[in-house]
Write a structure and sequence with these properties.
There is one protein chain. The two termini are about 20 Å apart. Helix content is about 40%, strand content about 15%. It is globular. The chain is α/β, with parallel strands linked by helices. The strands form 2 sheets. The protein has an 8-stranded parallel β-barrel, surrounded by 4 helices. It has a 4-stranded antiparallel β-sheet with strand order 5-6-11-10. Helix 4 packs parallel to helix 7. Strand 2, helix 2 and strand 3 form a beta-alpha-beta unit. The chain is built from 12 helices and 12 strands. The protein has one domain: TIM Barrel.
């Protein structure tokens, strides 16, 4: 297992020196953030990220993410141009020493919450999804936490209209088309693609979700069987779907050698609908058995990259929602402790 930490580049308020001080952290997970989606990344930008990380004593072996242009997801005639740009970026990150690319195939929104500062009983705040609040949202006048700065109302309305005729089957077909073009290059370059599950794992505003559960993953790996076609096992995203058996899934796909990256975090189910709040990482803090999930990963041969996922804002920190320093550092320490204990003593 290689413990990593998400870093948003030189504009991140969290310094690389701080990340290096988190015990057992071997590297950062980052990306090129100043290039529009679908365009080519420069080798110099990647070398800059690598040199900064290395100077701090950290590796740069995981990209999260190379975003997939909406034209690819929609299956437009322009998609081949954007796929060629994506292939360029795969070659570029490989040349910089990257081994794993985390990406997603979610239409329009690659995550959705109804609040960014849910007040927890312990005084911290975190991301949360209230199904009751979601039902109050007017799809014709969308204003969503974290997304109002990403799309203008006109852009969002146009995108949603374009997806009106895209079924689950069509979106899945477009994913397979994309991977059939990209995966051979990944095999050539020694890069593994690790798809991130839908967040949350159900349809929103009529937009189809296609990587939400075990059957979705089985269909994906059957359609594109190359081992370079892998998974980011995000416990928070899969865990929000209450029908998902995360311990079983972790063991199954680790045994298949499909999990290249794991996002480990907990969620707490807050009512009997789909509502949940993000919590501290410990099993006792939420509704997921994190120790059992990690044990299933270890027992089935997982040796990939791991990072603590969304943390709370604690101790007065007012960080980027989900991506402050303090609680994610605590999460790193907890995750490292789980792996060490299970690797040393789990089978006794």
């Amino acid at each position: 297992m290689k413990l990593t930490f998400r870093w948003y580049g030189e504009d991140d308020s969290i310094k690389l020196d701080y990340i290096k001080q988190i015990p057992a952290t071997s590297g950062v997970v980052t990306a090129v953030y100043d290039v529009p989606v679908g365009e080519k990344w420069k080798a110099s930008s990647l070398e800059r990220l690598k040199s900064l990380a290395n100077a701090a004593g950290l590796q740069f072996e995981v990209v999260e993410s190379i975003p997939v242009h909406e034209d690819i997801k929609l299956g437009k005639p322009t998609r081949d141009k954007y796929i060629e740009n994506y292939i360029h970026n795969i070659r570029a990150v490989a040349a910089a020493g990257v081994k794993c690319v985390c990406y997603n195939f979610m239409p329009v929104f690659d995550w959705l919450r109804t609040t960014l500062k849910h007040q927890n009983p312990d005084g911290s705040n975190s991301l949360a999804y209230s199904h009751e609040d979601f039902l109050k949202v007017n799809p014709d006048e969308l204003h969503l936490p974290g997304w109002d700065e990403s799309y203008s109302p006109a852009e969002l309305k146009q995108l949603l209209a374009e997806y009106a005729g895209v079924s689950h089957e069509k979106l899945f077909s477009n994913l397979v088309y994309f991977l059939n073009k990209v995966i051979p290059v990944c095999e050539e370059c020694g890069v593994n693609m690790a798809i991130h599950p839908d967040d949350p794992p159900w349809d929103v505003f009529g937009l189809p979700r296609i990587i939400s559960n075990e059957s979705d993953l089985d269909a994906l790996f059957a359609a594109v069987p190359s081992k370079a076609n892998g998974l980011t096992f995000c416990t928070g995203s899969f865990g929000a779907g209450r029908g998902n058996d995360l311990v079983h899934m972790a063991g199954k796909y680790a045994a298949q050698g499909r999990i290249y990256f794991a996002h480990l975090r907990n969620v707490l189910y807050t009512d009997d609908t789909d509502s949940f709040a993000e919590t501290g990482h410990l099993s006792a803090d939420g509704s997921l058995d994190m120790a059992a999930i990690v044990r299933a990963l270890v027992k089935n041969g997982f040796d990939g990259y791991v990072r603590p996922d969304h943390g709370r804002n604690i101790w007065g920190e007012d960080g980027k929602p989900g991506y402050g320093l303090f609680d994610r550092a605590l999460g790193s320490a907890y995750i490292n402790g789980l792996f060490e204990a299970i690797e040393k003593y789990g089978n006794r």
